[in-house]
Amino acid sequence: MAAVEEKVSPHIVLFPFLAHGHVPAFLRLADLLRARRPGLEVTLVSTPRILGTLSLPPSSSSPPLRLHALPFSPADHGLPPGADSLADIQVHQFITFFQASESLRPAFEEFLSGITSSRSPVCVVSDAFFGWTADVARARGTSHAVFLPGGAFGNAVFFSVWEHLPHARTAADEFPLLPDFPGVVLHRTQIPRYMLPATGADPWSAFFRRVAASCRDTGALLVNTVRELEPSGLDMLRRSFGVQTWPIGPVLAPPALSDDDAGIIQWLDTHPPRSVLYVSFGSQNSINAGQMRVLARGLEASGRPFLWALRPPLGFDAKGGAFRAEWLPAGFEERAARAGTGMLVRGWAPQVRVLSHPCTGAFLTHCGWNSVLESLSRGVPLLGWPLGAEQFFNAKLVVEEWGVCVEVARGNMESSAVGEEEVAEAVRSVMGETEKGGEMRRKAAAIARAMADAWEESGGSAAECLEGFLRSVETSVR
């Protein structure tokens, strides 16, 4: 009798980019993979400093998630020592950081060589910004996929703009995104500040064109979106990159519990349902000081309670000491605290717990994709203030297609000024008992249901796509 060939499971290597918005999505992906394939070996690769900040919850999965550190010295590239994440630097240093991140390649090649010599076949799942790992994987005979923690439409437009620079071909404020997607019309205020002067021969263009080329060189794209919510965006990605696309979203981390959150949750508990506006521009974004004062006055004028996760304004070191009083209107924080109408949190706030709280009625956000998903998965509508990267295109999607967002402002003060009454009116229109507010809440609730349905074991599109991806990997390594 012929011997039965033993099935060997692949070893999956996850390599997120060095940014706070990317690492948690990869950690959650690791959980999803291991839950679907008990016994699957998964290794998360990053720098020692980033791995040292991870707090991994106890897991019933076996074997445990492995961590592998790659040496990284930011100071060797003209960056501050210890700047292992985009959150540690200013926007003007981003391109230096992107280029420095490519120095991880030799250490990653050495790591992959070591594990591919073992019996288990390997599949590398990298961030798009580490798309060069496709070449490394191919050289060692392993399969490769790119995981996009962002959405389909936002990424498709973002990379198309970098490749074609449509804003550099015209003096008009509005222009079609030719030649890929002629139906998409952009405004100059939707082009990130560092993208506006790009010529195609500059370091920014070179980096992102390398990233786009790598996305065409991979075997598959995993996308943090829902098939039913972004059919046209997924079609754009498929047409642009020409590879198999698996929408496996929403990939969301569970709420993190901390005793430090008690005061915030207690303050939220004192307010009626849907009455509080949550304000946050993410872990590595901020508005400038003038906008910060305008926003503060607009929040007061709206008459709505607010919880504001506050970072130093644009151009100031987020870790550089005390918050300055002149960044806010005189007496603003004291008035809000005295009346119980506003709470300012310096730095980080427990965002998922805040958005899950019944008193949270809307979220004023930079439209980073994690924030969009975290809010809408809980049926909380949005006020958009995109600041950079694909956030402008995420905002376009949730305003124009999904109808769950009112855009307050764009970018910096030079490209998009906003007044306090505009802020106040936007808050009132979303949170008030108005026809518009009611419609936005109904649409947000419908999106929340679609996101939950995507992970239903019986017929959920995300569950089916993740299973399809795993089967394709297992087939390719037999």
UniProtKB/TrEMBL annotation:
Keywords: Glycosyltransferase, Transferase. Coiled coil: none annotated. The keyword Transferase applies. The keyword Transferase applies. Gene3D superfamilies: Glycogen Phosphorylase B (3.40.50.2000). Its EC number is 2.4.1.-. GO terms for molecular function: glycosyltransferase activity. CDD domains: GT1_Gtf-like. InterPro entries: UDP_glucos_trans (IPR002213), UDP_glycos_trans_CS (IPR035595). Belongs to the UDP-glycosyltransferase family. This is Glycosyltransferase. The lineage of its organism: Eukaryota, Viridiplantae, Streptophyta, Embryophyta, Tracheophyta.
